[in-house]
Structure formats: C-alpha cells, structure tokens
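Re: the request from the purification team.
They wanted to know what the chain is likely to look like in 3D before they choose a buffer screen. I agreed to run a prediction and write the result into the notebook, where they can find it.
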Amino acid sequence: MLPPSARVALVDDHALVREGLERALREDPEIDVVWTGDDPIALLNSGTEVDVVLLDLELNGALVTTEAVAALIEDDVKVLIVTAHTRVPVIRELVFTGIHGVISKAESSQTVMKAISRVHAGEYWTTRELAGALANAEPADVAELSDQERKALRLYASGLKIAAVADQMNVSPNTVKGYLKRARGKLALSGRPTSTQRDLYEEARRQGIISE
C-alpha cells in the first residue's frame, strides 16, 4: 500500500504550467505538492523533503543537466522527466543517470497522477512510443551497464539477497542498492518494467546483458 501522500515538487520554467499542474495535482489526496519553481538546484538548497520531482527537460532555454539530475537522485529523490519533445539521445543519457521515468506534456493530468503514483511506489514510467524509440536507438548503448552494475545485477537476479551481493562484491548494501537502482532504470526505460527479481533477470537476458 502506498504511503498517504507522495511529496511532489514541480520544476518548470513556465509559471502558468506550474500553477495549472499544481491545481490539478491537488485534487489527488495521495499527492502533496510541497515545492514549485524553475531551478532544481534551488529545490535542493531549499531543504524541502521530496519524494518525486516532475522536472521539465528544458529550463530557461537550456536542457536540464545530468549533474542537476544526479544531484536530485543522490538526495534520494525519484525524478520524472516532463518533456514536450522526444529527444532520444538526451533522455537516454538521463536514463543512465538514474531517472525513474519520462512523461509527455501532451498527457492528461490523470495520466500524470498515475505516473507519479507508480514512480513513488518505485516503478518506472514511460510511454510505449518512447520505450520503442529508446530500444531502437543504438541498441548496444540503450541499457549499457557499468561493470559493477552488471555484476550486482547478475548476482541479485540469480536469487541472492542484497546483503549477500554486498558480501560478494565487498561493498556496502547501500552501494549495491544504488547499482541495482541504476540498472533497473536503464532496463525498464529501454524495454519492459522489472518489478521482481525474475523480471529483472529475464529482461537482462533478453537484452543480452547477462547470458547465464
């Protein structure tokens, strides 16, 4: 069961968009809009406790930086990118950074609410069209995992617990969770959702990331 509410921040450089979306989201009792603005670093500096950030892909005439996204993720925030245009190379790079999803500005407020709830629950969200575009764009790079992410995925998907994977890799359990979080995001946004260990293993095999 989801917590009573997801603490949500809206980061968009158009005040009218923020205000309209905020009004719509406040109709959902499971969503609590706790911060709005046009700068993700200002959000971080505010000290506001946030679960999910709806982050516009383009802010003040420039694409959002991977550094800004990484800083949010390192603060244990789930990032849902909002975009008016499909920019596959940019989004693919953000997938590698660890975002939890991408949603189009053309979607309804009800769909946005659903995406927030899914992301808040730890799932990944994207449109079928974007998932297909990501999967068809340079397939070898779509779910490119680091050596450590690949090793953690292989061990975890084989059935080991987080603590056992940490022992095998000689790292902390939190580090393993980080590896798996990034690996899961890359797999989910370039293919199919991976909610269980078995799903994770099958998707990694399907994409050729692990063979055994």
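For the purification team: The radius of gyration is 17 Å.
Please add any questions underneath this entry.
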